[in-house]
Amino acid sequence: MSIRPRCLATVALAMLPAAAHAHADHAHPPALAEAWTLSPMVLVPFGLLALLYAVGLRRLWRQAGYGRGVGPGGVLAFWSGMAVMALATIWPLDAFGAWSLAAHMAQHMALLAVVPPLVLAGKPFAVVAYALPRRWSGALHAALHRPLSRVSDWLAPAAIAHSAVMWAWHLPGALEAVLAHEALHHLMHSSFLLAGVWFWSAAWRRLREPQTGAGGGVVALLAVMMQMGFLGALLTFAPRALYPVYAARAPDIGLAPLADQQLAGILMWVPSCIPYLIGALWLLWQGLRRSARRTPAPERTP
């Protein structure tokens, strides 16, 4: 069975409710120790995914042997992704995102650029399948395998959707609207996670199987990285605060509005681009290795 489309299904179905939780309304910003989002919409799917992965991994390694199916590195990546998702949706970024553009940006970049590749590296669907009854996992595979295989082949549309989501929701009017309307906030966080899962699922295939299109993978990863860097630079070097809602709220947590915006831009510009750069460099290296293997050695002259 193909692992790649199954990963897409697991993350899309199990993680969507957690990402869709909107910020709670506060009359005053919370203290760090109180900045918890303890909504069942967050905790139930998060806990369920964690439990199913742990049970499935135990059964998988008990049957196939330690490190078979998914290696320790993949398991570490999965739990690292879950930890980052907890920071983004449970504590503390979700609560502080209503008051600081930088905190909100960190949450967005976690859902778009960090959580998806880490979780996908742990092959979540393949592992979770071992925690489910055989009939359930077989039915899920039969229903989703073919359509999701096709979707995860569409790297260019995934890259376009990734960039479109990033630009559209960071327009000043859009951010102000989502802070005022809970339904829009649901939609924004859901779209970040879904766009991230789609793009990284398509990119992950190239990372694992560079022969399927290393060149296209490099172009897509670098294009998305450049889009993200450009938007981050715009926020960093803007001469004035572009988001009135955060200009009014950031001082309540001790941040100057322009400094808060500059920090948000730097977060998008530098650390958020690192996963894309690593992926592009890996694909480039794999392509050069294959090219070197195909190049015949020069004949020696007597």
What string gives the helices and strands in order? Answer: HHHHHHHHHHHHHH
Number of domains: 1
What is the SS-derived class?
A: mainly alpha
Largest sheet, in brief, is:
none
Dominant shape: globular
- Distance between termini? 53 Å
The overall strand count is: 0
Radius of gyration computed on alpha carbons: 21 Å
Structure overview:
The model is unreliable at 1-5 and 7-24 (pLDDT under 50). By secondary structure, the chain is mainly alpha-helical. It has helices at residues 3-19, 40-64, 72-89, 93-96, 101-121, 124-129, 134-151, 155-169, 172-180, 182-208, 214-237, 244-249, 257-269, 274-294. It has one domain (3-293). It is globular.
Give the tags.
globular; mainly alpha
How are the SSEs placed, and which strands pair?
Blueprint: H1 3-19, H2 40-64, H3 72-89, H4 93-96, H5 101-121, H6 124-129, H7 134-151, H8 155-169, H9 172-180, H10 182-208, H11 214-237, H12 244-249, H13 257-269, H14 274-294
Helix pairs in contact: 1-2, 1-5, 1-7, 1-10, 3-5, 5-10, 5-13, 8-10, 8-11, 9-10, 11-13, 11-14
How do you describe this structure in short?
The protein is mainly alpha-helical and 302 residues long. It has helices at residues 3-19, 40-64, 72-89, 93-96, 101-121, 124-129, 134-151, 155-169, 172-180, 182-208, 214-237, 244-249, 257-269, 274-294.
